[in-house]
Input
Amino acid sequence: MFDLLKKKLSNFVEKFSNKVRETKDKAREEKKEEIVQKRELKPELKVARKVKAVFKKEIRLKEADISNMLFELELSLLEADVNEHVAKTFCDEIKKRLLSEKVPAKDASTFIKERIKETLKELMRTEKLDLITMIKNSEKPFKILFLGPNGAGKTTTIAKLTFLLKKHGFSSIWAASDTFRAASIEQLAEHAKKLNVRLIKHTYGADPAAVAYDAINAAKSSNIDVVMIDTAGRQETNRNLIEELRKIDRVVKPNIKIFVGEAFAGKNLVEQAKQFDKALNIDAFIITKIDTDAKGGSTLSLIYELKKPVIFIGTGQSYADLKPFDAEEIIERII
Output
């Protein structure tokens, strides 16, 4: 009797368990079907979504939409000799701006490219410096102190700038204040002869500040508009050189101090400029040999890091190959 009751109870439990299992399986299948139906929208709904996207005038970009583009941009900046820190700063700023505004759906790529250019131009913006206007409005003689490492092209730049100023009606006199480097005075004298410019020089080893002082007095007595002072450029970290340049600065009290650096110096250009700026407070830059540099990104880093203007760039070997700096031209090379 007990065994029969136990058997009936076991059969009931088994049937109940099977019923519960079937109910769960059915519910699971129904849920699965519901999910599939949601994923696979009806054809007309799919079309409606696409049509809505096509006719939408503006869209919001997501980070995933621009991540590859930003990666490529950062690579382009680094390959163009832009400092790693500066390249990352530029890309972060561009990312922030693109994600914060609506983009025209029809021509998103052009819009993004223009935004990149605008952002780079804004981050490179510095105080404007018009050398020609400065000379016109200053008491004569106007004194320019040229600074920078050896080999960057200071001597040639002095010649080019003299040629340019002559076109604007300004006369110049030169001070051979690099009394350290062998043949520096002869090199300057050769350019002076070609341009018919008076050169004030002493012997090698003489006091550079004294040479500059004599050039200023000569300019005053001869009513010459501009004094250009060449200086030594041995290692920028050389303490003796820095003290020598500081002395010239104190004696001359130049109207402007221009750092001359070569475009393809890369990261070294920024480091060199920082050393000179720390010691003498540079006013502006002239970048040489831009014609030999594929991109010119080091110029971009220089402006961003030191916040000083680039006023001219050297584009070749002739005296006429000096032109006003255009930030957009550098950006176009990179973009």
The first strand starts at residue 58 and ends at 60. Residues 2-39 form the longest helix (38 residues). Confidence is low (pLDDT under 50) at residues 38-53. Residues 61-123 form one domain.
